[in-house]
Design goal:
The protein is mostly helical and 184 residues long. It has seven helices and two strands. The chain has a two-stranded antiparallel ribbon with strand order 1-2. Strand 1 and strand 2 form a beta hairpin. Helix 1 packs antiparallel against helix 2, helix 2 packs parallel to helix 4 and helix 5 runs antiparallel to helix 6.
């Protein structure tokens, strides 16, 4: 069954596409790992728009970056597929979809339920990101990385900030969801 997207839904998707692009440039300086606010906006897209529209908005962001717009944390373009960090962008799309699906059917959200959805999205983003990073480094661009350094640099050093963003996204979604629902 084909569902049409309303103008309101297109506008909301466009807003979250733009917010995700802006989030790529809102960098918090931490050693070793670039920390941006992209994850916050991708989770909010899923939470506030639902799985389908959240993934659509984040997918549009990824496609625009691959088309050459310099909206990723380190530029843009088709070559970005060969960057080891591209897996995190794939994870953003899937994570946004799953987070949205986990929370879109409930009327009365609890903070804990929203937070659990965010942590599920976080696990998806990191799983996709680390898997892609390992494959690209070891089998495509010939810069091998062992499992422990991969785990250290791509998870241990990066995840604390994203755990904080899960809490922020849950708090924001709890307050913003009724506002977006009232707009319908």
């Amino acid at each position: 069954m084909k569902q049409k997207i309303t103008i309101r839904e297109m506008a909301l998707c466009a807003i979250f596409t733009a917010l995700t692009a802006v989030g790529a440039f809102l960098k918090i300086p931490v050693p070793y790992v670039p920390f941006t606010l992209q994850f916050l906006f991708t989770m909010l897209a899923g939470l506030l728009l639902g799985g389908r529209l959240g993934a659509l908005s984040v997918g549009a962001y990824v496609l625009l970056g691959l088309a050459g717009l310099p909206i990723f944390a380190e530029g843009g373009g088709f070559w970005y597929l060969l960057k080891p960090s591209f897996g995190y962008l794939i994870g953003f799309v899937i994570g946004s979809y799953v987070t949205g699906k986990m929370t879109e059917k409930k009327k009365n959200w609890s903070f804990g339920r929203i937070l659990a959805a965010n942590f599920t999205g976080l696990a998806i983003v990191y799983a996709m990101g680390m898997l892609y990073y390992y494959v690209i480094c070891n089998f495509v661009i010939d810069t091998p990385i062992a499992l422990w350094p991969l785990f250290l640099y791509c998870f241990v050093l990066a995840v604390p900030g994203d755990i904080l963003l899960c809490l922020v996204a849950a708090a924001l979604a709890k307050r913003l969801k009724p506002v977006i629902a009232a707009m319908q």
